[in-house]
Amino acid sequence: MQASPAPLLLVLDGNSLLHRAYHAAATGRLLDQDGRPVWALKGLIGYIARAAAQLRPDAVLVGFDCPDHSVRKADYPAYKAHRAPKPADLAEQVAAAPDLLSATGVCTVVATAYEADDVLASSAAHARRNGWRSVAVTSDRDAFALIDASTSVLRVRNGGLDKAVLVTMASLPEICGVHPWQYRDYAALRGDPSDNLGGVRGFGSATAARLLTAFGSVDAAWAALDGGDEQAVRAVVGDGASEYLHSPAMRETVNRNRRLMRMRVDLPMPDLDTARLPLDLASMRRALAGRGINLGPSLWALTGGAPPPSDDELALMPQPWVWTRRSRAGRAPAPGQLALF
Question: Fewest beta carbons less than 10 Å away: which of 1, 135, 169, 171?
Answer without folding.
Answer: 1
